[in-house]
Amino acid sequence: MNKRIFCLAAFLASLGACACAQAQPYGIEALFARSGARSLTFYECTGKGDSAKAICRSVNRKKSVTFRRDGTASGNYFDRKKGFTGTWKQSPDSDDVSVTEGPALGVHFSLDGKYLVYCGEESDEIYPYVLEEKNPARSAGASELIPREAYAGQIDAFLAGLVHFKVVGTDVRLRKGAGPQHEVLCKLNESGRSKYDTWSEGVALRKTASGDGRQWYHVLYLLEHQEEDGLVPMDAWICADYVTASSLTPFDRGQIEADRFHVLNVDDSGIGPMGELPSFSFGEPLSLRREPDSDADCVAVPAGTRMKLFGGINSGDRPSVLIWEAIDASRIRQLGWMPLDDLETRSGYAGEQAVRRWLARQRQAR
Question: What sections of the chain are H helices per DSSP?
């Protein structure tokens, strides 16, 4: 018995079944009813050990089968490049599931709870698959996604409370707090008054605070003039007597939206027209990572959210793509990172062809 089959023997024993023997009926329909999802994806188990939990601890995301409520199925274990599409049906009095591709090719599975066992033509061709919950955010404690209209409102409200300031004079002190008793962090100069005028303006909260009988601005950013201008985050105070305040510039808005809210203005950033970004949506909820290589912080994206792709493919331990959402006619916000293999194994969703064309262009660029 080869090593793979030896490992699977314990798996099948833990299910109380062998090969394609009938287990306790559970059914694809029952899984749909319990999860509320529109599709169910099973991934091939690749772990090792003497228990189902151990064997299903790791999966091969390049081999999967997906069932949908409309009776269709898709997968990629026949041909990794082409994948397959077909219809599925379940025997009304058992847990046996069949997937048919065309008139000739049929594949049979034995289903037991979240485990799916693929039984090949030969007696030793036994491949267990495990169901991946389509909304892991509920159990992982992921943060809920703020609706895009509310998010745009939060951004606009925050920006409305800011001013762009310019320093008047030389050696204007930037302090840790509102008042002369606080430590001096650095000195600023009016633009053109000193050769050390790299920092001569910035962004502060519109509302001032009192200190020693004078008003002080809370500085959030300094505008740095280098080879390329940019706002540098800051937490300091400057006396209002030595600055002039005005409305934010378009540059200010773009920099702050990107830094604090992970929002890009498509019209101003050179990305191209909004309509050129691939648009797609899934029929089930999605959990996206805040960071590409960490599951520690995730965001729950509701089913039907119209998402967009921009930014290429991140080449980390597990390549990922950055998912965005349009919040208005010109701005997109960052939702989170999605593993590339997860996106590639999905099919039958709205906008799939546009996504696949985008992925093909990204591969060529790499």
Answer: 3-15, 28-35, 52-55, 137-140, 148-160, 250-261, 266-269, 340-345, 352-365
Structural domain tally of the chain?
3
Co-location of 267 and 304 in the same domain? yes
Out of 84, 99, 134, a domain closes at 134
Mean pLDDT computed over 188-213: 77
| Tokens representing residue 113 in the block | 């709870």
Boundary-marking domain end, from 238, 261, 284: 261
Give the three-state DSSP class for 125: coil
Residues 117, 180, single domain; the answer is no
16 and 122 assigned to the same domain: yes
Mean pLDDT across 40-59:
69
Tell which wins on pLDDT, 89 or 138: 89
Question: pLDDT (tens digit, 9 = 90+) per residue, 165-183?
Answer: 999 988 999 999 999 999 9
Element (H, E) at 213: none
Dihedral of CA 217/218/220/223: which sign?
positive
Map tokens 């300094």 to a residue. 222
Please count the other Cβ atoms lying within 10 Å of the Cβ belonging to residue 355. Answer: 21
Asked whether the beta carbons of 75 and 65 are under 8 A apart, the reply is: yes
Residues 323 and 288 in one domain: yes
Which residue range forms the structural domain that includes residue 19? 3-134
- Residue 235 pLDDT > 80, yes or no? yes
